[in-house]
Amino acid sequence: MPASSQNTDTKTFAWQGIELVVPAEWELAAYRGDFKSGYFSLDDGVAMRLRARWEHGGGRMDAVIRKYRRSINKAAKAKVFEELDPGFASKSFREGKTLTVFRWQAEESAYGLGWRCDGCGRTVFVEVLFPPGADDKRLARQILISARDHRDDGKQLWSVYGFAFTVPAHYNLERSELVSGRLHFGFIASKRSWLTVERWSAASQWLKRIPLKAWPEEYLKHGRVSVAGDIERTEDPALGHAGLRFTGKAVRRSGLAALLVRPQPIDGRVWHNADEDRIYAVVASGKAAGEVDSVAASVKSAPA
């Protein structure tokens, strides 16, 4: 039975500026690279179902697709690789892009789009993969034409494992830790400006050991940030949940911002969503400190 008829629930997945609407059970399986050049794949718990790769520039699109076709033939030993009518993609999707639509078949099969965006200059390839006997052109098209490679609002959405938020588009992901119970994203805006966004699960267990009022120091310690002096804190609910606003000075012990030798002002918010049993934190230094409220307000999370 085609996958599209088994489950119609969908969600938005977003990574490094690439956004897609995918089946709800598909999750991030692998990733590498950065905004300029990178790769990610999603799986359904059994097999890889989608993969995307991107780079800036890349040469003529016809040469790029020939190179991509050779890589598919070599990696997947494709028996069929055919370019399809561009009408496979909607007219609105084709606007502002040099576009190629393709399909290949080996033991598994895939529908894919490759395009160069006139606006941001990215070259992107996205493929939806199907196990033997489960080829679903309708589902593939639905997912592929939902893709976007940049936003027009100056923001960048990140949405993975039921955790979503936006940051300014020019912030670069420096470090991520996506482990059971903890999702951490560390961004750099410049050598003097950083921002972190984090979600901790099993909050009730953490709070038995570390009450919310002591959480700023705990969070900074886990973020390899050394506090200089006292942390000022006030009760300040976030998104309708009990929380703290805290400020102080600190020195970052890793990453680009560690080049600073003098303590820098920090601004942060931490809150406890008791319904989800999760703790959230947004902390920043330098110019990024002015983004703490807007980033915190953008946080969305799926039910635990």
Task: Provide a quick synopsis of the model.
The protein is α+β, with helices and mostly antiparallel strands.
Q: What topology emerges from the helices and strands here?
A:
Blueprint: H1 3-6, E1 10-15, E2 18-23, E3 27-33, E4 37-43, E5 48-56, H2 61-76, E6 80-84, H3 91-94, E7 97-105, E8 109-117, E9 122-130, H4 137-144, E10 155-160, E11 163-168, E12 172-179, E13 182-190, E14 193-200, H5 203-209, H6 215-222, E15 225-235, E16 243-252, E17 264-273, E18 278-285, H7 292-298, E19 300-301
Antiparallel strand pairs: 1-2, 3-4, 4-5, 5-9, 6-7, 7-8, 8-9, 10-11, 11-19, 12-13, 13-14, 14-18, 15-16, 16-17, 17-18
Description:
It is a single chain. With 304 residues, this protein is α+β, with helices and mostly antiparallel strands. It folds into 2 domains: 142 residues, Protein Transport Mog1p, Chain A, CATH 3.40.1000; 147 residues, Protein Transport Mog1p, Chain A. Strands 3-4-5-9-8-7-6 form a 7-stranded antiparallel sheet. A 7-stranded antiparallel sheet has the order 12-13-14-18-17-16-15.
Short key terms for the protein model shown above:
304 residues; Protein Transport Mog1p, Chain A; 2 domains; seven-stranded antiparallel sheet; disordered N terminus
Order of strands across the main sheet? 3-4-5-9-8-7-6
**What is the number of E strands?**
19
CATH superfamily of the largest domain: Mog1/PsbP, alpha/beta/alpha sandwich
The CATH class name of the largest domain reads Alpha Beta
Q: Return the CATH topology of the largest domain.
A: Protein Transport Mog1p, Chain A
Q: Which series of helices and strands comes N to C?
A: HEEEEEHEHEEEHEEEEEHHEEEEHE
Strand content: over 45%
Helix content: 10-25%
Q: Can you tell me the CATH architecture of the largest domain? A: 3-Layer(aba) Sandwich
Gyration radius, rounded: 22 Å
